[in-house]
Sequence to fold (145 residues):
Amino acid sequence: MDQQQDIQFASELRSAINKLVKKLRKESPTGQKFSLTERSTMSALYQEGALLPSELAAREMITNQSMSQVLNHLSEMGYIIRVPSETDKRKVNISLSDAGKNIFLQSKHERDEWLQNAMAQACTLEEQELLRRVIGPLTKLVEFK
Fold:
């Protein structure tokens, strides 16, 4: 392949992945209750356990003020817990509440269930095996800096 074909392939891959992500968001009634930033913030908290608001803002590439609004909304719904830092009382660690973990896992399950069903119905067994093999390279792309 020449460079133009490589760029075209990259464009098609990006487009397909974007469409899949959007489709997955639509297929989770629970997840639709949250903005993209709220979902991503909850995901980070689920994976990391607890983070500072500034760390969350940096991950989301938004201002601290914008992250404060996101956290206030999640707090109003009872999905996060704020705990003063043991080392610096001026700082507050944010983590998911039990209700936050449950709603996050429910949304994740809805998307996983939809995707499993879609793969089973739309893809041949050979295509499903191909998708299994592409997880590794896609993960490398996600982790590339």
Observations:
- The chain is about 70% helix and 5% strand.
- The radius of gyration is 18 Å.
